Amino acid sequence: MQTAKHRWLWNGVFMGIVLMLAGGIYWSSKSIDYNWRWERVLPYIVDTSPQSIRAPFDGRAELGDDGRTLTLISDYGDAPLLLNQYSTLLVTDGDLLFEGDEIARINSVRTGPIANGMAMTLQLSVVSLLCSVVLGLGIGLGRLSANPALRKLCILYIEIIRGTPLLVQIFIIYFFVGTVLSLDRFTAGAAALTLFSAAYVAEIIRAGIQSVPTGQMEAARSLGMSYVRAMVEVILPQALRRSLPSLAGQFINLIKDSSLVSVISLTDLSKAGREVVSSTFAPFEVWFTIALLYLVMTASLSWLVQRLERHMATAH
């Protein structure tokens, strides 16, 4: 009973601190001379405004007998254009039209640049994450290889990648390697993130393998397993289970680090945010929204890793 009371007490303390922080942020927002316009941001996430349908040539409008079908007759002998899918008609029968005139509108729901930027960030992060796991696993195993040449090459790769900034690596891969191999922006950005993250994944996996007692390998070999089979069936499952929290932190960093690819004009979430700020002149609203979307992505990944960790613990 005492434990339950303590739990309620500390949960109340937690909620009180959160409310104080929220109140502090709200008070700070009111204390600055800034007109908050959150409605400016929503159309850049999901745009529900009607799309305009414009005349493709000079001519006149003819309405059908049903009052819904619109035919555009060209003054220059072009084929007539039949229009029957629209929400609002802006012309009447016999109206003269010029190329570019708005003749109708159609209701639609479209993703805005912020949503498109988030999709690009997710796509880039997923590709880089999967590739970095495969590459990092290979480098981590090479780091422990008995072959001196392979081991030293893996160490050299890890030290070079971890010792240079990701931004510099992106520039080198895009402007140098990308020019030689004719890589597009997405491929160059994904390659830079993969190479960068793989170095950290390799060290995490190497530490996980070394944390497994050496007796595990000796026992597996004494049962007649080859080194490769013992590594795959005995050592790696234990190493990955122990390394999962560190890998989750690295993958979360990968999502945040993906914002740097905007320097090569890849329209990810961060670059989309800068473009929207220049259009809306609402920097605080946009950047708070961008931060929230990054938080949603990283929190979702963290939740998935926790579920995987619990599943592996249960299976074990």
From TrEMBL:
* Stretches that traverse the bilayer: 7-27, 122-142, 154-177, 286-305
The UniProt keywords, alphabetically, are: Amino-acid transport, Cell membrane, Membrane, Transmembrane, Transmembrane helix, Transport
Q: Give membrane topology per the record.
A: Multi-pass membrane protein
Q: Give the source lineage, highest ranks first.
A: Bacteria, Pseudomonadati, Pseudomonadota, Gammaproteobacteria, Aeromonadales
Q: Which domain of life is it from?
A: Bacteria
A single GO molecular-function term is: transmembrane transporter activity
- UniProt xrefs under SUPFAM superfamilies: MetI-like (SSF161098)
Task performed by this protein: Part of the binding-protein-dependent transport system for glutamine; probably responsible for the translocation of the substrate across the membrane.
* Cellular component GO terms held in the UniProt record: ATP-binding cassette (ABC) transporter complex
Descriptive protein name: Putative glutamine transport system permease protein GlnP
Cell compartments where the protein resides: Cell inner membrane; Cell membrane
Q: Which PROSITE patterns match?
A: ABC_TM1
Q: Where is the ABC transmembrane type-1 domain?
A: 118-305
Name the GO terms of the biological process aspect: amino acid transport
Instruction: Give the family this protein belongs to, as stated in its UniProt record.
Output: Belongs to the binding-protein-dependent transport system permease family. HisMQ subfamily.
- InterPro entries xrefs: AA_ABC_transptr_permease_3TM (IPR010065), ArtM/GltK/GlnP/TcyL/YhdX-like (IPR043429), MetI-like (IPR000515), MetI-like_sf (IPR035906)
Q: Which Gene3D superfamilies match?
A: MetI-like
